[in-house]
């Protein structure tokens, strides 16, 4: 009973704090927003773990059992986020590793904090939490990031270029595991014209359409486009801003072409270093799905001559 009570109260406290921070954030905008919102990513799970540790303080919980306690608390907390905050499964999967580690850290700190013979260690926890909070608040999450991938195509640039401009629907099922969990994946691209300023559309699963506008156009060498309308899918909305995409073709002089694909984006979640690990990997999956499709089409054209 104590275990269930501790787990429930800890997550209720975390939920209440999250609700309060969300409401209070309406009064903080611009550079001050990070001082309130983003430290909560670290502090709330820590608090959840420490509240649970207070309930567990009279139980003889070994270190191994504490790891299991943190797992159940984290799962209950994220289930609550899915039910009450309508968070998507992809977001929950991304957050879970960090959330679990922070809840576990809160439990372990609580084991120390609530032992009466560790008064000096208790005092050392506060400077640690303050340092963690200030460091995270000061760390900028507005840096523009670029991800670039390359694919070798056994066809000349003149065979590759038409499929870079536009390609029909990709028939293959996605093999990237996060796509299978529900993250939208690219299916088709349309081209409104072969000139700077032309409109393009990159279509994704779930009916998502990203509207683009050509910014650079060098036939058989380079295509650069700006994103003019952000996706509204709940797994991405508000978390990331897409800025630009680019394809560059390099003629290798031996009948092959190296195709480079790049994307520029800005994350709006912290800690940036953690979430960018996931975003970088997902961006690569988008690149490679499109570029490998272009490779197959171009090599088929070259083989039909």
Descriptive report:
The chain is of the alpha+beta class and about 300 residues long. It is built from 9 helices and 7 strands, in the order H-H-H-H-H-H-E-H-H-E-E-E-E-E-E-H. It has 2 domains: about 1-140; about 145-305, 2-Layer Sandwich (Alpha-D-Glucose-1,6-Bisphosphate, Chain A, domain 4). Helix 1 packs antiparallel against helix 3, helix 3 (about 40-55) packs across helix 5 and helix 4 packs across helix 5 (about 90-115).
Give a count of the beta strands, DSSP E runs of length 2 or more: 7
Q: CATH superfamily name of the largest domain?
A: START domain
What Rg do the Cα atoms give? Answer: 24 Å
Which fold does the CATH topology of the largest domain refer to?
A: Alpha-D-Glucose-1,6-Bisphosphate, Chain A, domain 4
Percent of residues in helical segments?
40-55%
* Mean model confidence by pLDDT: 80
In the predicted model, the low-confidence regions spanning at least 5 consecutive residues are: 19-38
Strand content: 15-25%
> Order of strands side by side in the largest beta sheet?
1-7-6-5-4-3-2
Biggest sheet statistics: 7 strands, antiparallel
* Assigned CATH class of the largest domain: Alpha Beta
Q: Would you identify the CATH architecture of the largest domain?
A: 2-Layer Sandwich
SSE-based structural type: alpha+beta
- Quickly count the helices: 9
Q: How are helices and strands ordered from N to C? A: HHHHHHEHHEEEEEEH
What topology emerges from the helices and strands here?
Blueprint lengths: L1 H23 L8 H4 L3 H17 L6 H22 L4 H25 L5 H20 L5 E10 L3 H9 L11 H5 L4 E6 L7 E6 L4 E10 L3 E8 L10 E12 L5 E11 L4 H32 L2
Helix pairs in contact: 1-3, 1-4, 3-5, 4-5, 7-9
